[in-house]
Amino acid sequence: MTSPRLEIDLSKIRHNARVLVNRLGKRGISVSGVTKAFLGLPDIAGELLAAGVSGLADSRIENIRTMRRAAVKAQMTLIRSPMIGQAALVVRTANTSLNTELDVISELSKAARDIGRVHGVLLMVELGDLREGIMPADLEDAVRRTLDFPNIALMGIGTNLACRCGVVPDTRNMGELSQLANAIEASFGPVLPIVSGGNSSNLDWALGTADTGRINNLRLGESILLGCEPLHRQPIEGLHTDAITLVAEVIESKIKPSQPTGAVAEAAFGTAIVSTDRGPVSQAILALGQMDTDPAGLTPPPGIGILGSSSDHLVLDTGRNRLPIGTEVGFQLNYSALIRSMASPFVTRLIQHGASPHAQPAPQPAEYAI
User: Fold this and answer.
1) Residue at 238 is within a domain
2) Are residue 336 and residue 268 in the same domain, yes or no?
3) Spatial contact of 97 and 119, defined as CB atoms under 8 Å apart
4) Cβ-Cβ contacts under 8 Å for 32 (sequence gap 6 or more)
5) In terms of domains, do 228 and 250 share one?
6) Domain that holds residue 344
7) Fewer CB atoms inside 10 Å of the end CB: C or N, the chain?
8) Is the pTM of this model over 0.85?
9) What DSSP character marks residue 361?
10) Which residues participate in catalysis according to the annotation?
11) Residue 368 confidence (pLDDT)
12) Is residue 366 part of a domain?
């Protein structure tokens, strides 16, 4: 069987999505299923829809185009601010986009008018994480001007936390978003059907707070795919944490010293090896490296440790057991390792449909035109 590969259990992904949809639904919060980590793979997108997500969301318009071409039927939202040069493609492909710049919304308006469509816009607000977002003091003017653009429908406001600076979604910042929504509608009427509080990092707040205020949507990807919350990387009760496994093959297995020999400088990726002399170790090399995944985000099986990596090699300490050549080793992944593995052209995918797996080729560069 081809390796390295991602083994993807669709039933576990559907279970995770359904559990979160149901739990949040009881709090009056819908779920947008974020598809970027798996590049809009239609098999997985279909599982999210079957689990009851209200729509699909992706940061790359190319992934949304992949799902459109595969006839995935859903409301689709571009969750990274559109590049101004892609305005026409965004309008043709996505129902809604998250925006912070009026110049971009103006181009979306022109592109939508040219093809006779109405494009939805959700304005993102800066609430402390210092990534994308309109400053709260400027939001009212942005809403006023957005409402004036032809062929643009204001769909709501939202925010994003915990991605750049790790700011935790809590009662204070989620309360501020609710207050902003109330203030906008006091001035303009009921113009904000969606108030999107954030991503998987919001789950502790959303499922634990007594009052979710105006927040009625979250954008979830990592928690569905990996079964963990991103703030502390802790498993979420009732979810599978092994829906996706990365498998690689042993290409060398030898007893070697535990310390390098000779003068040591920076290694291939800018770090020097610091190690303790433990005597000879049982070392295995896998056909997997930095070009395939984030080695720091891999969790090996019990009894195996990761010694290091380069572009194409992952070096393991296999403890008391030497692994025969051709042995396959499976790893659990964190989010960083997952998205890099999914995007690597060298990692294939094995999709499990019940008892009938089928292979998906590694992704290839997408053409631009839809």
Assistant:
1) no
2) yes
3) yes
4) 53, 54, 55, 56, 57, 77, 79, 196, 217, 218, 219, 220
5) no
6) 244-360
7) N
8) yes
9) P
10) 36
11) 34
12) no
